[in-house]
Amino acid sequence: MTELCKALREGFSDRVELVGIGRPAGGGDGGPWLTGVAEGWSPFGNVGRNAMGLPAAIRRSGVAVFHAPAYTAPLRGATPVVLTIHDVSYQRHPEWYPYHRDPLRRWFYRRSAARAGRVITVSEFSSREIQAAYGIDPLTISVVPHGVGRAFATPEGAGQRDADRTRVAEAIGASDAPFLLHVGDIHARRDLPVAVKALAALRRRGGGLGSLRLVLVGTDRGGLAEVIRAAASESVADAVVVTSGLDDPSLAALYRTAAAFIYPSRYEGFGLPLLEAMASGLPIVAARAGATPEVVGDAAVLVEPGDVAACVTAIDAILAAPDDGMAADLRRRGRQRAMSFTWARAAERTVEVYESCLTRTSRSSS
């Protein structure tokens, strides 16, 4: 949301004024241009906030449209709501979310979707999934893909490479060994044991691959225990590095330094790390599932979900000739494709959604 707010401010300040509900005036992660409107105390966590505190703050703010940026929306109020839903994996595949409160969350998400005047999502795949999950009119859903952050489009150079090595050493430890990279919170749907098994198979080939590592950047969302079991079973526990909480410059350094990006996820609403990897010139091997083919186009090697052997073959070919052949082609295609995903374009499309929401509201009230 921070990048979107910056793009709205830089390119569309004549069409939209940003007001941050629950943020201090002139501060918060959205940027100093936000007018802050305080939000009072609410009981019962996020549900209580959306039932009481948030509607009251929106009413005081006088905003014409309220944009709820992630899944949940105010449960009452007269102000038209635009709701961003990134994916509906929790609704379509609840088996991946074995949390004891998940039925309440699914109810809240469904209720929020029904409450919204317009829904923004990030891919055509997610649009179809939202329609199937909630029965929402497709004419009220707008697809607005993410843009690539500026930190991930830094040109390469000798000075940049030196800085990257320093940041990588701080993030995952100093080593000249090549590594595969995965970025994204560790969910069951990400199917990361596939990456662990591919790592083990590549290391068994010996030579330069014998020291290959796998770096996982993301917060554990219930999938890490299975990753640890797979690593122990494959005797590669010492070669799997898990980290989180990196800033954008450190994450960008990992993208630029890794040997290949592996993304075996079985379900993605978009897959922002794919876009960041492409912009960084990092060759990608990913599962042909969810929105991944839509995002990467012809700029990645796509394999069937769960196909370890195909992952190994593709990564081996990339590592065998990292500066030419398949690797060079993927780097070129990736950078070229990433250029079509900009936050300026996302901001323009978002403003159009705001304006159409207002038009629809004025027509229904007349």
Compile the SSE list and pairings.
Blueprint: H1 2-12, E1 19-21, E2 35-37, H2 45-61, E3 66-68, E4 81-84, H3 89-92, H4 102-115, E5 118-121, H5 124-134, E6 141-143, H6 158-172, E7 179-183, H7 193-204, E8 213-217, H8 224-233, E9 240-243, H9 248-257, E10 260-263, H10 272-279, E11 284-287, H11 292-296, E12 301-303, H12 308-320, H13 325-338, H14 343-365
Helix pairs in contact: 1-14, 6-9, 7-8, 7-12, 10-13
Helices and strands, in order, run as HEEHEEHHEHEHEHEHEHEHEHEHHH
Helix/strand/pairing category: alpha/beta
In spatial order, strands of the major sheet run: 9-8-7-10-11-12
Assigned CATH superfamily of the largest domain? Glycogen Phosphorylase B
Q: What is the chains' assembly state?
A: single chain
User: Which percent band covers the strand fraction?
Assistant: 5-15%
Largest sheet: 6 strands, parallel
> Which fold name corresponds to the CATH topology of the largest domain?
Rossmann fold
- Mean pLDDT, to the nearest integer, reads 91
Please identify, by name, the CATH architecture of the largest domain. Answer: 3-Layer(aba) Sandwich
From the alpha carbons, calculate the radius of gyration and give it in angstroms.
22 Å
Overall body shape: globular
Low-confidence stretches: none
Taking the alpha carbons of the first and last residues, their distance comes to 33 Å
The number of domains is 2
| Total strands | 12
DSSP helical segment count: 14
* Name of the top-level CATH class of the largest domain: Alpha Beta
Helix amount, in percent?
Answer: 40-55%
